Amino acid sequence: MTGTRTSMAVLFLLPALVLLGALVLYPIGYSLFRSFFDDSGDFTAFGNYETLFTDDSIRTAIKNNAVWVVVAPTVATALGLIFAVLTERVRWGTAFKLVIFMPMAISMLAAGIIFRLVYESDPDRGVANAVAVSVHDTFAESSAFPQAHPSMKSPLKNASGGAFITREPVRAGAPVVLPLVGVAPDTMPDGAKPAKPAQADPDQVTGTAWQDFTRGKGRGEVNAPDTAELGYDGIKIEAVRDGEVVASTTAGADGTFALPKEADGAQLRFPASNFREPYNGVEWLGPTLITPAIIGSYLWMWAGFAMVLIAAGLASVPRELLEAARVDGANEWQVFRRVTVPLLAPVLAVVLVTLMINVLKIFDLVFVIPPGSSKDEANVLAVQLYNSAFLDKDSGVASAIAMLLFLLVIPVMLFNIRRMRREAKR
After folding, report:
1. DSSP letter string over 85-153?
2. Tens digits of per-residue pLDDT, 353-395?
3. Which residue windows are transmembrane per the record (predicted)?
4. For residue 294, which of 125, 94, 89, 65 has the smallest C-alpha distance?
5. CATH assignment of 35-129+284-425, among 1.10.3720.10, 3.40.1370.10, 3.30.40.10, 3.40.190.10
6. How far apart are CA 62 and CA 49, in angstroms?
7. pLDDT of residue 27
8. Mean pLDDT in the chain?
9. Residue 27's closest CA among 405, 380, 384?
10. What is the pLDDT of residue 197?
């Protein structure tokens, strides 16, 4: 078409062909050759490929890669589509897009370190568990006395469901003592004050709930409040008669409480809610949730990439078609599902295919985020290739893994080439 001689065209293409051969074709060919030899250089035919499907670590990596390929690109593309459509309807859409796209400026390694801290199990350090604990405690507040229990000489006994109840009914005008032990002094409520005996009242059932323990051998009196002992500030007490709660109250900072005369003749009970273990969040980095947790960090980074590409495609969608659908009576969901999404199908395919290729070689996040106890459960093929080549010193198995990754990429690339050719014919 340009009149350029073939020899001249080859001359100009030669540098690119040399680089392509040195950086792509030669590594592929050598990896294929090396995959038929073991770590000592002996020919094993397909022995290394058999290892791919018999070694537990590699099979876990293959399974996790399958999860990654199915979940991560699909969810990232869906989020990108939602963000792109919704940001068109708000004035501050550009600012929102900027915030969502900003994680793309962070390297995978840095993002892995960030999310290793985000997923920390300690709510005081990990953001994810800090949010989870805050939401949980909003609806079901944790107790300050999870380890509290009566001593051997206590007037309390065990009740069903983890509660404690008095052995005998209580009477108005006779102060009740409800001693417990088992709470460390430094975990007592901040507002707790020294316990003191309750005052007798003929019209009320009064008493004291406190930590019946004084440091130092032989100090303090059993089942009697001492000034060195703290009251159970905020602990709940119920009066129970014939299995029904007739009155309830909470203890003050010094452990004293008062119940109305309806509690006369009833038994006093500490409900099990007083001793609920504190909620410490979710084990994000545990073996069960480690892969979804890492996928979550990937979505944080790549949803912005999907959003920008889809938003660019959305900007080219003819607005007349959307308005025509609305004039014909379609609601916004119908317009989105039947008009917007079909028109964006080529862009969505590009984003989906790009992300599928990207997750097949995911390495940094999986290498950095999991702790040692969960690394095996989070394993993927790229990390296993690194482990086999540099830790196990088995270049044969590593080459076989590299060829498996290459084979997995080929169908996606063929689909992409076919799609581009179909687009070019339109």
Report:
1. HHHTTSTTHHHHHHHHHGGGGS-HHHHHHHHHHHT-SSTTT-HHHHHHHHHHHHHSPPPS-TT-B--TT
2. 999 999 999 999 999 999 988 999 999 999 999 999 999 889 9
3. 66-86, 98-119, 299-318, 339-360, 397-417
4. 65
5. 1.10.3720.10
6. 13
7. 92
8. 90
9. 405
10. 92
Q: 248, 258 in Cβ contact below 8 A?
A: no
Sequence ranges of the domains in the chain? 35-129+284-425, 156-275
The strand pair at 267-270 and 256-259 is best described as: unpaired
Q: What's the CA gap between 170 and 173, in Å, rounded? A: 9
Residue 409's region, left for phi above 0, alpha for psi from -120 to 50, else beta, is alpha
**Structure-model confidence comparison of residues 5 and 426, the more confident one:** 5
306-330 burial, b if ≥16 CB within 10 A, otherwise e?
A: bbbbbbebbeeeeeeebeebeeeeb
**Closest among 272, 286, 275, 273 to 129, alpha carbons compared:** 286
By CB neighbour count within 10 A (0-12 exposed, 13-18 middle, 19+ buried), where does 45 fall? exposed
Helix (H) or strand (E) holding 70: helix 56-87
Judge contact between 284 and 371, C-beta under 8 A: no
- 233: amino acid identity, one letter: D
